[in-house]
């Protein structure tokens, strides 16, 4: 993609989201309108829900070495930002990550920013988007934030619906399907099984399966 094409994309982006004066708020709003959830992380200690997302998606290395990145797959659209960034740095990283997304770097994979060409395009997008918005040196600052991506860390940016996505990831790690057991029973059942209606139940966990604690119910036959 050449400079003229990138300038055209910046103009298109501004028009699509009605952005005249670029700000952190306007870029975050644009990301949300594109279906992204913004997650602030701390390289050292995070909220338990944030930690769950990071570990489930295998992003620990990115968290340790990046100031911000996007993650896109069939289920999730996430923008990760280091909570220690000051206002100007946050604006630069947001514009750079928007450059990755708007330039189409997420179309074929969720690992964004692994090539020098992609970094150049995102840098140029950020430069022309922020031109005249912040001090002149910020257009050169983005490469410092994104250097870990150039050398090939696997990355990814929440799914639509933040806390819900974290819960879904947690559930996939903890539970074994949509099966239920009673407090003192020895079998697991489908949720609508007649033998557990009106009784206190909990979901079947992966530990239950690994320990061989329960057998399938012969009435609702959950394994079939």
Unreliable spans are: 108-113, 135-167, 169-173
For the record, the count of structural domains works out to 2
**Overall mean pLDDT score?**
76
**What is the ordering of alpha helices and beta strands?**
HHEHHEEHHHHEEEHE
For the CA atoms, what is the radius of gyration? 22 Å
Report the sheet-strand fraction. Answer: 15-25%
Q: What can be said about the biggest beta sheet?
A: 4 strands, mixed
Helical fraction equals: 40-55%
Number of helices: 9
Distance between the termini: 52 Å
| Shape, per Cα inertia axes | elongated
| Number of strand segments | 7
Order of the strands making up the biggest sheet: 6-4-5-7
Structural class: alpha/beta
Descriptive notes:
Helix content is 46%, strand content 16%. It is of the alpha/beta class. It folds into two domains: 3-160, no CATH class; 175-216, no CATH class. β4 (175-182) and β5 (187-190) form a beta hairpin. The model is unreliable at 108-113, 135-167 and 169-173 (pLDDT under 50).
Keywords:
224 residues; alpha/beta; four-stranded mixed beta sheet; 9 helices; 7 strands
């Amino acid at each position: 993609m050449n400079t003229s094409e990138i300038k055209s994309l910046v103009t298109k982006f501004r028009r699509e989201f009605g952005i005249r004066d670029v700000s952190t708020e306007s870029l975050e709003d644009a990301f949300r309108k594109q279906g992204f959830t913004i997650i602030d992380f701390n390289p050292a200690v995070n909220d338990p829900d944030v930690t769950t997302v990071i570990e489930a998606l295998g992003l620990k290395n990115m968290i340790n070495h990046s100031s911000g990145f996007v993650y896109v797959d069939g289920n999730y659209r996430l923008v990760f930002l280091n909570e220690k960034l000051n206002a100007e740095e946050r604006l630069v990283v947001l514009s750079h990550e928007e450059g990755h997304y708007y330039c189409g770097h997420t179309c074929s994979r969720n690992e964004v920013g692994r090539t020098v060409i992609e970094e150049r395009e995102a840098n140029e997008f950020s430069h022309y988007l922020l031109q005249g918005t912040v001090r002149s040196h910020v257009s050169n600052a983005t490469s410092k934030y994104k250097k870990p991506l150039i050398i090939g860390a696997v990355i990814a940016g929440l799914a639509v619906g933040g806390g819900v996505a974290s819960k879904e990831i947690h559930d996939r790690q903890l539970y074994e399907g949509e099966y239920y057991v009673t407090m003192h029973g020895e079998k697991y059942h489908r949720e609508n099984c007649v033998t557990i209606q009106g009784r206190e139940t909990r979901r079947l966990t992966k530990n239950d399966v690994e320990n061989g604690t329960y057998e399938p119910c012969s009435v609702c036959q959950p394994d079939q």
